[in-house]
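note to self: dont lose this again. the chain is below, predicted strucutre after it. 596 aa total, dont forget to put it in the shared folder this time
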Amino acid sequence: MMELKSFKKLFLMTKVINSQFELSDILQVFVDAIASEITQADLVGFFLKQPDGTFIGYKGNKMSIDITELLIDPQKDRFVCDILERRASDYIDDTNLDPRIDDDKKLLMKIKSILGIPVIVNDSVFGVVFVHDFGKPMNLTREQIEVTEAFVNMVSVAIHNIQMFENTKNLVDKQQLLLDATKALSKSLSVREVLKTCFHYMKRATGSDEVGIHLYNEKDRTIEPYHISSVSVTEEEWKNRHREDIKLSIDKDKLFYEVVTEKKAIAISDVYADPRPDHRACEMFGIKSLLLIPLVAKDRVFGDVVIPTMNKCREYEPGEIEFCQSIADVTATALANAIHTEHLDYSVNVRSMELQQANFKLEGLVKELEYLNELKSDFIATLSHELRTPITAVKGTVDILRKEVLGKLNDSQLDLLETAGKSIERLLNQVNELLDFAKMENGKFELTYSEFDFEELIREATHIVDSLINKKKLELDVEIHAGANRTMRADRERILQILLNLLSNSIKFTPQRGKITIKAYMEDNEMTIEVIDSGIGIPVEKQKNIFTKFYQVNNQINGTGLGLAISRQLIEMHGGKISFESTEGEGSVFKFTVKK
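---
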């Protein structure tokens, strides 16, 4: 039985293998683990299957032999052939009694016993693992073989996951490439731009430097060379050879005839084994394999994309053909649009240019207005900051004098200071409004949420305006219908600011001995506050501009024209809304709601 310590090491190895995403790293950990922790063998090698059916050394544990120089041919090694046919592990405990192993390998590696296990991924043999000592038998137990097989199964899963990951990544990459191609082609307005864009993305899709495009002359039924990207021939040589030696007509060329009439891509891995291509032309350009994709849009063939392979034959995968066809399809659509655009009447083009120029001018004007708006906001913010400091200093000085800290004042002096204090307070409020406006314009304004009793907030607001109410001998009623729970969560100072702004407006526009009513109630988890006055009302023609910045209903009354505009923005930042109703000569009702 294997020791607990070894099982722990194997568990750690398992975690390492399943955390790796590079095949080379996983297989190195795998062979090292089998060699050091399971079999204690001299050599553990992973041999990777090649397209021709042979297996080449890929990864091995630390040893004197370079495993990458070893090649195993199942045709010459019956032991390997049996493993592949049965798709199961095999163990020769004494190679003297079992002649299946290749004699050359047996002598070279001094193999006395050997374990071979196929690595099956997605139901196909991905590789083979071999375990043996040099010059001595291994005497592996059944448990060691089973643990090694379990590790091979685990590695198979890890390789499968890598392949799935790579396939998914390739699919995502292809989708992104197709999306990029579609976007780029949608911006290509001319035939030249469309085909240039097609070249760029078709080369990326195929990984080939050889891409050519022909345009189809539907009237003459001929294929005409348009543009080529090649490392084997220049575009001028390509076109000259077509003009002088190769005149492509779909009635004489079977391959192009089939592409044009069938409107489908054709992939030929060996052009000389297929009767359809023009073998003389293929020999002239050194073409061995060929992928031909029609440019079809609105059931019309506009041309084709040719992707040849030079000097060697190549198999084109179905997924690759389908992907190239997708790029060809979006190219054909863009090409059809470009051809249609280039054949429009000259006057339409001129008009388009005029509209484009007008649009450029409009964009320039918009940018200029945006710049001026930024300058305005910056100016207001700077000016407000510059004004606030001296105003605050003056206010502090006036407050000190009013408190008679520096000496007793007579009644006339106190009245003057009282008037000055109110004027300073009004000016400071206006500066604060400008600061709030500038912050909102620049997107730097933030709310500070807290829980508070909104009835206390209303009482505070009425206390602040009490002196103004008394001065005009106004009647102020407060009606609160909130039930037991009067708390809400919002920016308390900003809700107070909104309420004070509405109350100040009502006081300004309500004549002596008029009436102002505050109603507050909770409904559907929303707090609603109404400020109702018996003032002069708002003229109908001015009501649509009531929340416009810097707009004043009555220019005879001092103010910045920002109060209601800022109030609306503050309410909307809370997720609420503000509205009003007004009748000229009778009064106004302003109402705002805020979610509790």
